[in-house]
# Entry
Amino acid sequence: MPTPEAIIFDLDGVIIETDEYHYRSWQRLADEEGIPFDRAANDDLRGLTRRASLLKLLKGRVISEDQMQAWMERKNAYYLDYMGRFTPADLQPGVGEFLRAAKAKGLKIGLASASQNARPILHLLQINDLFDAVGDAFSVPNPKPASDLFIWVAGRLNVNPARVIVVEDSEAGIEAALRAGMLTIGLGSGERLAKAHLVYARLSAACLEEALNHLTRVQSS
Ligand code: BG6
Ligand code: MG
# Structure
């Protein structure tokens, strides 16, 4: 029976809970510019790039490219204020254990994040050494829900996409992984994860052995 050979993790909302900080940064920008925005609107930005998030926030308002750049930089400056304080204590519960269990099992470990801040965050969390390949917002032109980033990371890991498990919290991320022909674990709740092969509320509730058994059965059915 073919077994998974690699696990590719998303970063935001999986390895570290950054949603609140992205939310506060977008909210500050929106307030300064008089654009209606709230937490519910922010939930729709999960997994989207900075540019795609700004376009959603603008809801059809048209601004110049220079203004887009300036607003994205301003939002990111607000976010960096929070990010600069990240430490290993900010790792989501269960992540360290899950990563180490996967390593011990001989699985290759990858990261596939839509964020331009992914590499510095891995360093701040002191887990960069655990990853065999890191894909971020700079790796491919087409962001999630396109499959490109996951395919790119699988290539770096030298693993067939069909032997990869993806751990994701966003609808765009699950969609991208499915398009890449990968097995998926969704983290969280609600409709956004309906298409995932397996869903856990959080990684601390996941058992690697159980997940591998389940996903191996999915693969061979
Ligand atoms: C994704 C997050 O991982 O990265 C989004 O889910 C975020 O909320 C996106 O907007 C881009 O992040 P950054 O750090 O490049 O602005
Ligand atoms: Mg995410």
